[in-house]
Design a protein that fits this description.
Blueprint (H helix, E strand, L loop, with lengths): L1 E8 L5 E7 L7 E5 L8 H11 L8 E5 L4 H6 L37 H13 L3 E6 L4 E5 L3 H11 L3 E2 L10 H7 L5 E5 L6 H17 L2
Parallel strand pairs: 3-4, 3-5, 5-8, 6-7
Antiparallel strand pairs: 1-2, 2-4, 6-8
Helix pairs in contact: 1-6
Length: 214
């Protein structure tokens, strides 16, 4: 049902893997990404729960990165092992050097192994929509032409839709893929004060929607 098609190793030699579903006939292509930020592991849990259901006969082809930032996850920190926020490291028009704090995007854009890996995935897989799983705001944020999908996901989860997260995000993946490349990007912000089991109950139909309805 699912197979590994691409991988790379981080600075600390942890593996990042891209999987795809094996359906050769499909309508659209969906990319799902977990753990951009290491202290937000909820997305990987939901992805693995979905895969445990062994979904079959899918309408759409799924590309899945369960954990983009394994070094950060092990350290329970937002940034990768170089102290860089991957969600500020993309080569966007608004990228800028910021202070070396939680949101530091590096000394130059696309400097990180993880960022380069994801850029290459976009180039080769050409997804029709992207779901990036984050925490902790309990909102459905979107970039690019994704409002309709965001509204549907909001109906499923009960989380409100927000087109603006409320603070600047230079070099973000949403800017890179959604704003500048006109791809529908959903950033599903999961609440951090709920159990993983509760999050799964709230969000399992999001995966079903992307796999079979979108």
């Amino acid at each position: 049902m699912i197979k590994e098609i691409k991988s790379v190793y981080t600075k600390e030699k942890r593996k990042i893997t891209l999987f795809e579903t094996d359906n050769t006939i499909y309508d659209k292509k969906v990319l799902i990404i977990g753990v951009f930020h290491g202290e937000e592991p909820q997305g990987e849990y939901l992805i693995n729960k979905f895969l445990e259901t062994k979904p079959d006969n899918l309408k759409n082809k799924l590309y899945i990165i369960p954990c983009l930032n394994p070094d950060g996850k092990v350290k329970n920190q937002r940034q990768n092992s170089n102290g860089i926020d991957l969600n500020r490291n993309f080569p966007t028009k608004n990228w800028e050097i910021t202070t070396k704090k939680d949101y530091f995007g590096g000394n130059e854009p696309a400097s990180e192994i993880e960022t380069k890996f994801l850029i290459d995935v976009l180039k080769n897989c050409k997804p029709d929509i992207i779901l990036s799983l984050h925490a902790p705001f309990k909102v459905v944020n979107y970039d690019g032409p994704a409002e309709q999908a965001a509204n549907r996901i909001s109906e499923i989860t009960g989380y409100p839709v927000k087109s603006d997260i409320g603070y600047p995000t230079p070099g973000s993946f949403g800017n890179y893929a959604g704003v500048e490349r006109n791809l529908p990007v959903i950033t599903l912000e999961l609440p951090e004060d709920e159990t993983n089991e509760r999050l799964w109950e709230e969000n399992k139909r999001v995966f079903e929607y992307l796999a079979n309805e979108y």
